[in-house]
Amino acid sequence: MSAPSYAPARPHTGPTSAELLDFALRTAADPEVIASLPLDPQGRTWVRLDGPGGSEAWLIGWPPGTGTGWHDHAESRGAFATARGRLTENSLAVRLPSEGWQSLQLAEGLDRRRGLGAGTGRAFGEFHVHEVLNESTDGHAISVHAYYPPLPLIRRYSRSGPVLTLEQVERPADWE
Fold first, then answer.
1. Domain count, the chain
2. Within 13 A of 116's CA, how many CA atoms are on the CB side?
3. Whole-model pTM?
């Protein structure tokens, strides 16, 4: 007789992070899709796309100097690719607890920074905390993002030096 299993197995369903990245890169290289995005000089714009295998996907326009602020995508894995311009991703090289905290003191050495020019992208796993920025002073950036499972929520954080504070939890109805 085997010991009982107390943790339910999570079946792997839907596209992998690598498949999401492949979709984002292919879509970012499609001039017709990129040209379909209306750009606003003042704020980010977005259009929902049909992602692969039931994923959620977005085409996003980034005016100069805009960004997301620190956030995560909860249980969703994801990927994004830059179609035009250059984006910067700041991220944390640590998996944070998914629940049960309001503020955390981060250890030194956890910050990561990467630039993503046109035609480049990156994939990430669940609970990936990051911010994405268009640091250009004069040019729009455009990117393609895909998530699976479709975003159940986004947690938004503020950051003061090494202190990360949970500020808000957004649900899909808040951004659609």
1. 1
2. 27
3. 0.89
